[in-house]
Amino acid sequence: MGNVKLENVEKRYSDVVAVDDMNLDIKDGEFVTLVGPSGCGKSTTLETISGLTMPTDGTISIAGHEVTNLPPKDRGIAMVFQNIALFPHMDVYDNISFGLRLRKYDDAEIDRRVEHAAEVVQLEGMLDRMPDEMSGGQRQRVAIARAIVREPSVFLMDEPLANLDAKLRVHMRTELQRLHKELDTTIIYVTHDQAEAMTMSDRIAVINDGELQQCAPPLECYNRPANRFVAGFIGSPSMNFFEGTVEAGTLKTGVFDIDVSTVSETVSDGDRLTFGVRPEDVYLAETADDITHATAPVRMQTDVLEPMGDEIFVYLTPEGDSVEGMEADTQLLMSVDPDTTLSQDEYVDVVIDRTRAHLFEVGSGDAIIHGLDGEESEWFRNQQEEH
Ligand code: ADP
Predict the structure, then answer these.
(1) 148, 247, 258, 382: which could join 117 in a potential S-S bond, CB 3.0 to 4.6 Å?
(2) Are 287 and 308 in contact (CB under 8 A)?
(3) How far is the CA of 311 from the centre of ligand 1 (A)?
(4) Can you tell me which atom of ligand 1 is nearest the CA of 53?
(5) Which range of residues forms the domain containing residue 308?
């Protein structure tokens, strides 16, 4: 049983609150990723679970037992870090088995565990290699094998792929998913890379300023972000945001006037709201025939175009504003088909799919609603049910 529970965990360093009242309930066998910007408290949270750091407050349980004050070796965990610290003068077999030999396991048991771990990370046939004869990815697999031989109930991984090149990182993501399936063990994984979090995890825990923002399956965080922070952090490129005030049932953002009379139970005149929409939910009016709940078209001017191969990102500024004088956050980013013929400084009419738009409270940043019409909210609800 590798379930992990954090209750009201706090870690303070003099006046810095690295982890603030963290509550997490991770089920046995789950792959949970702690994600957030640098300095948000991900590593400190992981260290409190490993026992490398003692929390200032709160309790931590692993496999149903409270471990808050236990040393790392008595917690049934194994760790893999960003820096792969292999012994350079030992071959792969000795590197993997080092901890077991220290603990005086008998030779047959060591053999069994090393062979199994080498098979899981696909390093069979390389056990007599020296670390300097291996690629970065292979060395990272040795580090993972060294964790596997301990047969822990929980794996803790802190940015284990951060030092690998981009291509290998993507490959190792699939490897880790396979590993998780094969070992059927709880994995708690730290990364600042939201794409890594999205692709591998059963649930992602989004952290900002030491506080947990949302802990949910990746697509739920994407489609139903709990607040503006999660909406902006998950998804690349980021969601577009426009702030405004509701007047006579219309949210006036300066760029778009959004009819919010459809959600009058939750939104009132005078409310200060942030309107959020992802680049893929913004359309050229001429291609939006299938969008049944589109906003009124707004004339905008194209600025930078970024062809990505499978789509083109188009930065748009409202008509009449000079590009030089624009605030970056009043630009609208739109994703269009790769065969769309557009050039810089062209005038286009754009619409937004209201079924995919979000409203957030300006002060707290909390999400108010996902989808601006009855049917639209239903689309988001269905997404949630599917996951
Ligand atoms: P992340 O892993 O998300 O980058 P960390 O958990 O490393 O963030 O750090 C969270 C906050 O705690 C940061 O402000 C960092 O400076 C602070 N912090 C971490 N470890 C220590 C320490 N040993 N002493 C003082 N401050 C620390």
Answers:
(1) 148
(2) no
(3) 38
(4) 23
(5) 239-386
